[in-house]
Amino acid sequence: MSRLLFIFLLLTIIAVPFVLSKRSLVFVVDTTISMTDEISIIKSNINATVDSIKDFDVEFILLPFADPEVGPPINETTSGFLDMVHLLEEKGENDCPEESLGAIKMALQRSGPNSHIYVFTDAKPRTKDIDEIKTITNMCDIQKSQVLIFLTGKCSPTDPIDAVYYDVAKNCRGSVILYDLGSLRHAFKYIKEIVKTQWNQVDAQYDFLRGKNISFAVDTYTTDMMISVAGEHPDIEIINHLGEKMDVQRIINTSTACVVIMQQLTEGEYKAAVTGVDYGMVTIYTRRAIHVEFGFSSKLPRSLDETSKAPIPGISCYILVILDANLELTSIKLQIAKTGEEIHLQYQALDKTRGYYVANNIFEHGKTFKLSITARHKENKTVIEGVTPPVKPQDPGKSTAWMKPVVQLIGHEMNWADFGDSTTFACKVTGFPKPRIIWTDDIGNTLPFQCVLVEIPSVYLTYANVANATRNSIITCTAENAMGADAVSIKLFVNRTNTFKVLKSPSDITVQYGEEGRLYCEVDAHPRAEITWLHNNTAVVENDNIKFEPENHALVIRNMDIESTGEYICEINNNIESRSLGASVVITGLVSPYIKPPLIKNITQPLGTDVNFECYVERGTPVPSSRWEFMSPNGNITLLTTGNSIGPLNYNLKNISKIDEGIYSCTAGNMLAVDTIHISLKVIQN
What is the CATH number of the domain that holds 341? Predict the structure, then answer.
């Protein structure tokens, strides 16, 4: 078996269909006899090239083609890929043209998005394959892949470079560069520069003849630019936004290619003057980098201070992403390092004006990933992409030495809140074993709080909430474990505008005698208002019958009597505004005294006997005071007895004599009236 046949069989056996999700570098190599020297140059340069870019998370694919065979593509490890390249040998005849378009199509079919297709050939494409251009263009549009054609010959020395290649390169964001054997090695330098930098915008043009002036804008997100000019004796001159000629780094400068790199650019309009002997193509590579800040937490974070640099695996985790405020997030993708898998994450805006966004995911232990961010400029609608450095989830088995807690305030030591607002404070606590955490205020109240682990095994975030901020206070977070304790305090100032709102005002009341009566007066005022009460224009002072209940905003009449009636005024004053609110208090339930009339009004009784005078006070509210009095025939009045109740008030007179003759009167009186009955007594001999 010939060596050539062995290689062909080997390629056929190990090649299997595959679809990649990560970026691929596909080397499409013409293996016809005419490419003998080129294949030798490829083998001489491929090792150094692959070694310099193998850490850029790319997939290497080799796709040989000849006439009429194309492929199959070989997807291998880095070392396996190099082995396959070194096994390449030319075969067939010096055919021209070749089936290069079919090879480009297959390369796009078998590679992932954003891949680079490098075509090495010395022949123009077959005319019968021209229809493939439309398919190739569609695939490039969908996959955002790039095709670069390194051409080392022509079917005839007098032939121009075939326009079909220019069409492919233009539609696939690439270029066509004609190399001779002495300069082909520069193609690999070009490949290195393309792969090493994350160029996220590629513009290709080929319609310049001998010269062209190209204007391009540099914005604040542009970090690097590379301009490639392919043609006969190309050259380029860059004029910056100040009209000055720039010093640029020329990485390739041959008779058929000129490639320059510009770094540390400042914002403004630039011009590129390109020249050449004949037709040429200009390809402009732009790297725009989003400055992305990000962090992870199991609780919805409000700032990066409330996150860790890596997620805890196995639990639902928030991802906080912070962009420049001029950008609007359009997508977040999770790129798994080893597999190349991409996961689109749902996200929501926390604060678009500040560029705060949040997504959610459950991360797997041991799976390193990157965050791929795409954003759009709010004004010019430019799409900008960025990728974070690799992130490895935290190790659940990580251990640490015992340590005294350290409490770190998140946010400001002095905080302002509007009156009545709900306010949340946060602290980061580092300690092992897990500290006991408590939040208190300056009057000894314990505040409700949450605590979450943010970094295994010893860093926690703790949050306390003041549900209704109504006063200035000092909030303290304390953490304690077996190794010691630490605490930090936060000052809360409650901000209130001048307010004066009467919430309760006194109203007229009628109170049953002896019952309780209440008048209310409440104000929501800032500065704080003082309340005083007046009763019939005299300041009210607490006593046994009048009490103040500040917690109920009430004046209480505990036992209604006639002295408690009248006009009450609630005076409110905070030195900015004052108000007087009045109400009348009326008593009810008063009853005039009434004495039941006696059955006998005139009594005649023998000397030496006993007499019982009956008096029955039937009603009276308040309870009347009652008494018996005696009026002698000469008009002298003597008080005999008194009482203070409803019911009988009898008076007994024993062993009467002539001096007991006269008028006996029973009187009952209260604040309303007086009622009296009279009984006369006449003493006779037996």
Answer: 2.60.40
Domain stop point among 473, 495, 517: 495
Q: What does pLDDT average to over the chain? A: 88
Q: Indicate which CATH number applies to the domain containing 657.
A: 2.60.40.10
| Domain containing residue 266: CATH number | 2.60.120.380
Beta strands at 24-30 and 116-121: parallel, antiparallel or unpaired: parallel
Count CA atoms closer than 13 A to 324's CA, side-chain side. 16
User: Burial, 467: exposed, middle or buried (Cβ in 10 Å; 0-12, 13-18, 19+)?
Assistant: exposed
Q: Which H helix or E strand runs over 82? A: helix 78-86
State whether 47 and 173 are in the same domain. yes
Neighbour tally for 106: CB within 10 Å: 20
Whole-angstrom CA distances from 88 to 3, 8, 107, 119, 496 are 10, 9, 17, 15, 81
On the 0-12 / 13-18 / 19+ scale of CB atoms within 10 A, 593 is buried
Tokens of 340: 């190349």
Q: Are residues 20 and 166 in the same domain?
A: yes
The DSSP 8-state label assigned to residue 544 in this structure reads S
Q: The tokens of 361 are what?
A: 């995911």
Q: Which of 172, 196, 220 is the last residue of a domain?
A: 196
Number of domains in the chain: 6
- Which residues lie below 8 Å from residue 674, measured CB to CB, with a gap of 6+? 593, 667, 668
DSSP, collapsed to helix, strand or coil, labels residue 537 as coil
Strand-pair category, 484-495 with 414-418 = parallel
pTM: 0.57
What SS3 string covers 430-441? EEECCCEEEEEE
pLDDT in tens, 416-433: 988 888 999 999 999 999
The reply to whether 397 falls in a domain is no
DSSP 3-state assignment of 626?
strand
CATH number for the domain spanning 160: value is 3.40.50.410
Pair (442, 377) in one structural domain: no
Q: 619: buried, middle or exposed (CB in 10 Å: 19+, 13-18, 0-12)?
A: middle
Condensed to tens digits (0 to 9), the pLDDT of residues 363-416 reads 999 999 999 999 998 888 878 888 888 999 999 999 999 999 999 999 999 899
Residue 119 belongs to what domain range? 1-196
Q: Which residue bears the tokens 């030195």?
A: 575
Q: Based on the fold, state whether residues 192 and 215 are members of the same structural domain.
A: no
Closest CA relative to residue 299, chosen from 433, 424, 423, 451: 451
Q: What is the pLDDT of residues 435-494, one digit of tens each?
A: 999 999 999 999 999 999 999 999 999 999 998 888 899 999 999 999 999 999 999 998
**Cα–Cα distance, 158 to 162 (Å, whole number):** 12
